[in-house]
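Figure 3 (text version): structure tokens given as input.
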């Protein structure tokens, strides 16, 4: 991620400095978004996708998996 961030910063910052955004919205797995926002001194908004699963479903699946192991 560090190498990718370095390459993207070098490629994107010159154009973004000419026409800066009001803010930067970036995914947690794309740290270059945060770095771009810092370099441009604009607000940054980080997003993170989470998968929510019913705990009862997880327990049922775990029980099925356990019975297959014994």
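Below: residues designed for each position.
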């Amino acid at each position: 991620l560090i190498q990718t961030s370095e390459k993207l910063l070098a490629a994107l910052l010159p154009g973004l400095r000419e026409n800066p955004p009001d803010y930067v919205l970036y995914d947690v797995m794309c740290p270059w978004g945060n770095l771009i926002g810092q370099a441009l001194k604009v607000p940054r908004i980080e997003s993170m996708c989470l998968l929510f699963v019913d705990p009862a479903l997880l327990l049922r699946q775990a029980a099925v998996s356990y019975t297959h192991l014994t």
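The helical segments are 2-18, 31-40, 55-69.
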